[in-house]
User: Fold this.
Amino acid sequence: MKEEDRHTDLAAPAPVLRLIDAIVLIVGIVVGAGIFRTPSVVAANSPDQFWFIAAWILGGGVSLTGALCYSELSAAFPNAGGDYHFLKTAFGKRFSFLFAWSRVTVTQTGSIALLAYIAGDYLAELLPLGAYSSAFYAAAIVVFLTLVNISGIRFGTGFQKLFMALQIVGILIIVLTGFLVEPTTVQSPVQVADPGVSSNASIGLALIFVLLTFGGWNEAAYISAELKTGSRKMAFVLIISVLIITLIYLLMNLSFLNVLGLSGMAASEAVGIDMMRATLGERGVILIGLLVSLFALTSLNTTIFTGARANYALGKDFSPLAFLGKWDKKKSSPVNSLILQGLIAVVLIVFGAFTRNGFEAMVDFTAPVFWFFFLCTGLSLFVLRRKQPDVPRPFRVPLYPVIPFLFVALCAYMLYSSLSVTGTGALVGVAVLLVGWGVSFFQ
Assistant:
């Protein structure tokens, strides 16, 4: 082995990220294309405008509760593996392997493929390239952004800052249009809540979709070892990120609400398109298409960035996949993990091109798997407080154990809800985990 290769193999994540880099990464991964899809479902399950806005505020509060738990874990146990490292320390190597397996095979790569498809769908509308336009665009986007991240952490975060700058401009356009431009068309009213469903059940469903839209802030755990200021600042990064995300969501939803009204939002399948069409006409539709693609790209770039770091942690602990655990010191990135992740995502995109319904079903079953491991990460806070009480904790969750208990209880509720909604899809997710459990015995 060459001396240069040996140094590359022994390299590890270096503290090269500034606080602003971390905040940009987290806001970028959360504020994605979902904000253009979920508000209509939330509106349809909200009794009135007060509860609609309250659901988004509550979503921010719940996310803040979880962020406090992750702040303690990230500050006390900083590692590029994030949740993987917490679960390994609390519950052992085999259990953490299952988490990493689920990310590699289902949740992270599925999210990458889905986000790429969202951008691909809108780009295909603007410039069609044939029957498989969406898949072609989606695959090209994944390959391009994977190469961007392989080029190095500074180049990757530089792209993220560019995306975020453009995204902020897009958010301002949407908000200002919603508040300042008079609608030119009138939206037809619609019944916003099913009379046969209790108001509590409707609000509960609305909260599920709100929390799905807030999902992704926990990815901050994967960059805790790369902060220049050290892991002690993770609480600041997470809290500021969640507050910024909540403010963005409130402003965007208020702009949708101002133009379409609650009934108009409930009747809409694409609130952004309907809002822009009502205010700026067909030119607005083209503009929102570009903005949705931009939002998807911003989330996608960060999902690729953090996903590869979990794969890196898996390679460090699981000898058959040791090639994933190599860190390129010069580029400060896990190149092999990025390549494998990109290949799997492209395979899913190709699969989706031929069986789109099956592809969407595959993405649906990621929810129970995600909430199961989210629940376990919350529990790991209690376990590690007991197992390793002497580990320095630069940040401790306030009002312990009340706040962690609330977070764990919410995760349990979301796990139950996602299992009851997905049905057969959940069984496929369980099957994938069982395969991973078998593979874990070959360590």
About this structure: The longest helix spans residues 282-317.
